Amino acid sequence: MLACATTAPIAIGKRSCASIATRRSRAICVNSAASTAGFPGIEASQCRACHSEHLGREADIVKLSHEQFNHENTDYPMRGAHAVVVCESCHAAGKRYRDAPKECIACHRKEEPHEGKLGRDCGSCHDAGAWRHVKYDHDKTAFPLRDKHLEAPCAACHFGNRYKDTPKECVSCHEPDDVHHGDRGVKCAECHITKGWKNSKFDHKKETGFALEGVHDRIACNDCHRTGNLKDKLPRECFGCHQAQDAHALRLGKDCGTCHGNEKWKPSDFDHTRDTKWPLVGRHEKVACHTCHTASVATQKAAQPTAWAAIGRTTCTPVISARNAMTATSRRGGAPA
User: Measured in Å, how far apart are the chain's first and last C-alpha atoms?
Assistant: First the structure.
């Protein structure tokens, strides 16, 4: 036997080289030409001169370097945010490294907001970069997400972590947004689209026979349908909605469209010369409508230019002068000249 087994055994816990050699029937330490060939003087040497690895049961014989260890050589390569976490985050103290769990939920249970209702396979929706990176394909469900729905957080529809049997009707989520208070039913998609509530596809002319032109196409439904019930019958004449804005107090009739357009009340596009038999010239162009139209145009007969011609006048000036003279004489108590 070698010297280590006979003269200078090295303690390895409670064992020695000699006891090991004896138990193994001298298969390890044998003093033979085959085992010592090429090692002159080995018979007089001690085992520990070459075998420095025997440092006791608690010795770290692996000499693992956390900084230089290549995790790619394991069955769990590091990706994304995992590459920058400390080893102790996954490898618990006192446990073998190979016993570290591989499931996301094993480490991230406290961060899991779904209360386990979406299962344990976090990787089916999230990637290793960050939790907020979601790759779940909603198109594979019975409710593909389009437009504004793509921007909504999951909890906006799946409140209370309810994923199974989530309702698909618009009104189930948007009832608080329903300005019609249910009067139009629950089929919001008949008028609205997923790009936004205000982007309505309702064809007012086709459905009601009343085309929305000019500013009428940009105002809210409730500006006309003030009760909120869109089934209520509304007047189709301008005056029906704009009576309170009629500065003429009905003197010019109810057909507002004769003078006003659909974009704005002012300026009026009524042309007195074009649309009546009395051209407005000179100072008449600047006087207010109500100066001459003191009553409803439907009943009041305004003087026409032909009336002046019938009495041999070409202008109204002599008549006005005569009236003024009569008024002045009456005030002095005399007779007209």
Answer: 167
